[in-house]
């Protein structure tokens, strides 16, 4: 009896499981899709991007095995991505295979050599305009302007005490804050555009570009200065406070929020000027520029930390202009979307 019951149970299980695991129909259709996807990558081309025929041809049989066996799931999980400290790629990443057939495209520089970064692409790089007027200052006249000005001056006081003349560390830490306003402003304008069914005039992209640019300052300085555990803890706490404070300020008064950032950027220009003086005095060693900075700002290969600080300071001057301009638009009773955003203003 027991043996008959067991046989019935086994038959019933096979009837349910059979079509799913023993038919090749679904597998073949998946293979066809995978092959089509891979074939698409083989023929892809662009100004900086080239297809990789050898990689596509090599991966086809692998895709066949992958799509017809559940064992390959574990296989994928075992292959952890290997990334460099600065988001660079390289030959050691060859083992990463996507279950979904999404292959990274091979990107090359203008000189034909392989692009080593995955965190930014060659078409996002630029030559900084270092001829920008660094001394331009928005004189605070209204109550809100004075509030913004003195808020920034008050914030500078504890910063000066904490960092003294350690400008490398100071730059790295302040960039963790500087990259927040653009993201908050861009996010709020994005939501506003969705709520009101209206265009943003390019301001969402302009503010997100600013946030990304500031984050690249951080990615550069962390190659020169390594944060200590208590500095990481400080960033954690400051970000929690600053993100929420800026978010609320932007909701209540974007005019004030942009003015504050305008003055913060004026202070950043001052800090980087002091940084340059320390390098010129020999108090800070003028080490070779990090590779990420050379590629991001298209600097000559023999550039130094001084060259990097120069281009970063030029970036801060551009952010100063953009944010004072944004505040001025609000002062004139208009909305940001009424004035075309200064996209790609470096
Ligand atoms: Fe910055
Ligand atoms: Fe900045």
UniProtKB/TrEMBL annotation:
Pfam families, sorted: AOX
EC id: 1.10.3.11
Keyword terms of this UniProt record: Electron transport, Iron, Membrane, Metal-binding, Mitochondrion, Mitochondrion inner membrane, Oxidoreductase, Respiratory chain, Transit peptide, Transmembrane, Transmembrane helix, Transport
Keyword field contains Cell division: no
Main location, first listed in the record: mitochondrion
Alphabetized GO MF terms: alternative oxidase activity; metal ion binding; superoxide-generating NADPH oxidase activity; ubiquinol:oxygen oxidoreductase activity
Record-level GO BP terms: alternative respiration
Domain of life: Eukaryota
Coiled-coil annotated residue ranges, if any: none
Reaction catalysed by this enzyme: 2 a ubiquinol + O2 = 2 a ubiquinone + 2 H2O
Subcellular localization, as worded in the UniProt entry: Mitochondrion inner membrane
Family: Belongs to the alternative oxidase family.
Annotated PANTHER family: ALTERNATIVE OXIDASE
Subunit structure: Homodimer; disulfide-linked.
Descriptive protein name: Ubiquinol oxidase
């Amino acid at each position: 009896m027991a043996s008959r019951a067991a046989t019935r149970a086994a038959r019933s299980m096979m009837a349910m499981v059979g079509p799913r695991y023993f038919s090749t129909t679904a597998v073949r259709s998946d293979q066809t899709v995978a092959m089509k996807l891979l074939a698409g990558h083989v023929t892809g081309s662009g100004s900086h991007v080239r297809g990789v025929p050898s990689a596509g041809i090599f991966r086809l049989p692998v895709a066949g095995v992958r799509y017809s066996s559940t064992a390959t799931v574990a296989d994928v999980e075992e292959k952890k991505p290997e990334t460099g400290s600065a988001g660079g790629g390289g030959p050691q990443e060859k083992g990463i295979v996507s279950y979904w057939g999404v292959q990274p495209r091979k990107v090359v520089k203008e000189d034909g050599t392989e692009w080593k970064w995955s965190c930014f692409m060659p078409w996002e790089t630029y030559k900084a305009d270092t001829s920008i007027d660094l001394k331009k200052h928005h004189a605070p006249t209204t109550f809100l302007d004075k509030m913004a000005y003195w808020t920034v001056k008050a914030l500078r006081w504890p910063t000066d005490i904490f960092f003294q003349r350690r400008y490398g560390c100071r730059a790295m830490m302040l960039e963790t804050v500087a990259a927040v306003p653009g993201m908050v402003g861009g996010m709020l304008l994005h939501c506003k555009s969705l709520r009101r069914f209206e265009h943003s005039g390019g301001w969402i992209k302009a503010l997100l570009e600013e946030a990304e640019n500031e984050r690249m300052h951080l990615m550069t300085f962390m190659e020169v200065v390594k944060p200590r555990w208590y500095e990481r803890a400080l960033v954690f706490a400051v970000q929690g406070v600053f993100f929420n404070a800026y978010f609320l300020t932007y909701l209540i008064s974007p005019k004030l929020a942009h003015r504050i950032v305008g003055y913060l950027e004026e202070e950043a220009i001052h800090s980087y000027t002091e940084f340059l003086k320390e390098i010129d005095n020999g108090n800070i060693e003028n080490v070779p520029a990090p590779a990420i900075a050379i590629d991001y700002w298209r600097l000559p290969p023999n550039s130094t930390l001084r060259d990097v600080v120069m281009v970063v300071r030029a970036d801060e001057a551009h952010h100063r202009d953009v944010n004072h301009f944004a505040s001025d638009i609000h002062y004139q009773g208009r909305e940001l979307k009424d004035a075309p955003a200064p996209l790609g203003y470096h």
